[in-house]
């Protein structure tokens, strides 16, 4: 189990752990996750590989069109099949048939595993008996569908997928990797050696899973879905107004390490004030979730704040004190729900 799950063993955290944590050798798990979300939304309790093959191949193809590298393997028969379909060389039916045969060889068994073990509450079971090839949806996934957070899961999967594939396809040295923040567009982006910019994904979609879909300060439920009354806002934990001061002491206030999601009313109440110091531990914990999650947000946090936990703690304490020296008043939300981030 990850520390993320130990702190919160809920179904939502188990799902998010599968998406957000662990090494990625291919992007199949993201396509599989999006396919599961799509099909379970249709109130189904059994899904054949034949049924899975259509949304699974569709998701892979959509990403292949944008970024050709979808895995670390030098060659993949399945990905080559998808490339052939993109070129118009094979029909839809042939694509689906080959997807059923080639696309699920490892992902069905591997999807529910993390850190060498299976999650506590599995979301499906495999049934390959009597000539069948299907997965049986468990009550845990059906219960998850009733969660407030279910509406955010597809965007969280997409954001994680975008982060992984963009870093692969830009072929950047992890030691030089820095995911940057565009405040106006609320986007994460990367730049290559020629300062050519590549937009990656929505900041909200990327951060929400690591905060377990909760406001950083009040722990109430938040959403990343446009139009939702619970749509959250991106907040600078240490205020942006002190940007120049932090820059002089080696910190980028627009760095991922300093960005959190907050309920819009809570965020507006906070404004440019500095949170009470008890929230600094929560920020450290949230950033460590990134680092557990592996590349590329992990490398960005490490590059911005320090290579060891001790260095990262010292960095946060230093930056917090710099902000604190500019004011005598700290802030806390008017109310807080119990919960861990």
Tell me the fraction of residues in β-strands, as a range.
5-15%
For the record, the count of structural domains works out to 2
* Strand order across the largest sheet: 1-5-4
pLDDT averaged residue by residue: 91
Helix count from the secondary structure assignment: 15
N to C succession of SSEs:
HHHEHHHHEEEEHHEEEHEHEHEHHHE
- Cα radius of gyration in angstroms: 21 Å
Outline type: globular
Structural class: alpha+beta
Q: Explain this structure to me?
A:
There is one protein chain. This protein has 15 helices and 12 strands. The chain has helices at residues 3-7, 11-20, 28-40, 49-64, 77-86, 92-102, 107-110, 139-145, 150-170, 203-208, 243-248, 264-270, 278-292, 297-305, 309-324; strands at residues 46-48, 113-114, 117-118, 124-127, 134-137, 180-182, 187-191, 197-202, 233-236, 259-262, 274-275, 330-331. Strand 2 (113-114) and strand 3 (117-118) form a beta hairpin. It is globular, with a radius of gyration of 21 Å.
């Amino acid at each position: 189990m990850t520390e993320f799950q130990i702190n919160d063993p809920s179904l939502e955290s188990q799902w998010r752990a599968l998406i957000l944590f662990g090494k990625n050798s291919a992007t199949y798990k993201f396509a599989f996750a999006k396919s599961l979300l799509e099909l379970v939304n249709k109130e189904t309790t059994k899904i054949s590989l034949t049924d899975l093959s259509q949304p699974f191949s569709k998701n892979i193809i959509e990403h292949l069109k944008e970024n050709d590298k979808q895995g670390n393997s030098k060659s993949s028969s399945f990905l080559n099949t998808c490339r052939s379909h993109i070129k118009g060389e094979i029909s839809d039916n042939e694509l689906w048939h080959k997807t059923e045969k080639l696309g699920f060889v490892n992902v069905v068994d591997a999807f529910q595993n993390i850190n060498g073990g299976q999650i506590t509450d599995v979301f499906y079971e495999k049934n390959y008996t009597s000539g069948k090839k299907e997965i049986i949806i468990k009550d845990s996934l059906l219960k998850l569908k009733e969660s407030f957070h279910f509406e955010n899961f597809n965007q969280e999967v997409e954001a994680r997928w975008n982060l992984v594939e963009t870093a692969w396809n830009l072929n950047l040295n992890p030691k030089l990797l820095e995911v940057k923040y565009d405040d106006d567009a609320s986007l994460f982006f990367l730049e290559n050696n020629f300062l050519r910019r590549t937009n990656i994904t929505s900041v909200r979609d990327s951060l929400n899973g690591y905060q377990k879909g909760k406001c950083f300060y009040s722990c109430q439920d938040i959403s990343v879905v446009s139009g939702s009354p619970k749509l959250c806002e991106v907040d600078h934990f240490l205020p942006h107004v002190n940007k120049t001061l932090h820059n002089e002491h080696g910190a980028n206030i627009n760095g991922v390490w300093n960005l959190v999601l907050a309920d819009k009313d809570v965020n507006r109440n906070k404004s440019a004030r500095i949170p009470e110091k008890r929230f600094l531990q929560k920020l450290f914990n949230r950033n460590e979730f990134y680092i557990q999650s592996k590349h590329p947000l992990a490398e960005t946090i490490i590059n911005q704040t320090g290579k060891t936990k001790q260095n990262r703690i010292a960095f946060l304490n230093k930056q917090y004190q710099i902000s604190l020296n500019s004011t005598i008043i700290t802030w806390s939300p008017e109310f807080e729900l119990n919960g861990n981030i």
